[in-house]
């Protein structure tokens, strides 16, 4: 719940920032000189990109959470079996061991969104965020396509 509140507050702050920057862009365009119009258009591009990025990220998080809820309902969410250091950080060797199992599981069932979801979690635990995101995107695509075990289509 705390993560959702943090995300919502951050999104609201970003939207406020986008509105503020966008209004400055409009003011520059309204000034009417070629230089201010050019700067105004350039300034307006930033909030447009920001809103697009925020929207795509929010959609990704919502879809990943939907998959997590479905796995939870099936009793198939990955269990946290990682060893931790005294400070609470994940032990690297432990993360590598779990990752190797998850990778083998995914290679054995490449069309199963569940194995890709679990692989994404293993990548995240191994601190490989770009690959975690790509694995989760693959899980989402497979889920939305309705392929894999338990779906009745493959």
UniProtKB/TrEMBL annotation:
The answer to whether the entry has keyword Transmembrane is yes
Record's keyword terms, sorted: Membrane, Transmembrane, Transmembrane helix
Q: Which domain of life is it from?
A: Bacteria
The protein's matches in InterPro entries, at most eight in alphabetical order, are given as:
TPR-like_helical_dom_sf
Transmembrane ranges, per UniProt, are 7-29, 35-55
Record's Gene3D superfamilies? Tetratricopeptide repeat domain
- The name under which this protein is listed is Tetratricopeptide repeat protein
Organism expressing this protein natively: Streptomyces griseoviridis
